[in-house]
Amino acid sequence: MKSPPSQRHAVVTGASAGIGRAITELLLESGWRVTGVDRDPPTLATDHFNAFTVDLSIGTEVERIAQQLVDADALVHAAGILRVGRIGELDHVASDLMWRLHVDAANRLCNTIMPAMAARYHGRVVFIGSRVAQGMPGRGQYAATKAALIAMSRSWAAEFAEHGVTVNVVSPAATATGMLNDPARSESAARVPPIGRLIEPVEVAQLIGYLLSPAAAAITGQNIGICGGASLRC
User: In this structure, are residues 138 and 188 in contact, taking their beta carbons and an 8 Å threshold?
Assistant: First the structure.
């Protein structure tokens, strides 16, 4: 069995803002080498950080970049968008975009990166899900993509557990990111959790940092919520 390299390498999608940036900053502070993958230009310029500007909704672009990331010890798929709409007013173009960005990109990245992890008997994969995966009015199309991540993670966790690779989902409730100000969600305001405030991106990042650590080697196939008490509501 091969040991992981002294400086671990993490790939973080959506690294230019929000939860993805918070994860990137935390990992860099913890001694990781990080490759950010985002449609937007990088917003960090520091040692041990490299960035690829890629539209993750384009499958061929995802596959091209994945081939350059097979040395990754960890993959965190944090890139995402939210589009809302109720039945009778569904936007199928928006639905297709969310599916390609959240689900298809995860498929293509993992299809290349995870076998390489398994060959080294070491790897961590975390998808950023959402509490909305359980269902919410006006969020059906978005919820479907996040629910798909849970199903994929459990399936792949079962496939790779014996090869030292863990796969988990972290599902926050409403989080204080720029996504909350997106005009595309103006008719579906975020619900503040019972703790009386939004989840902070750094709180999500801290949990992911643990899941990527050696101490979390026995945690796989799980959907872990950071809900601020939202799941306690009747």
Answer: yes
44 by Cβ neighbours in 10 Å (0-12 / 13-18 / 19+) ranks as: middle
Residue 4, class by beta-carbon neighbours within 10 Å (0-12 exposed, 13-18 middle, 19+ buried)?
middle
Q: Which sequence positions are flagged as catalytic?
A: 142
Do residues 27 and 9 touch, judged by C-beta distance below 8 A? no
Q: pTM of this prediction?
A: 0.90
Is residue 18 within a helix (H) or strand (E), and if so which, with residue range? Answer: helix 18-29
Q: Please compute, for residue 138, the number of CA atoms within 13 A of its CA located in the half-sphere on the CB side.
A: 10
Residue appearing with tokens 């080294």 = 120
What pLDDT digit, counting tens, does each position of 137-182 carry? Answer: 889 899 999 999 999 999 999 999 999 999 999 999 888 777 666 5
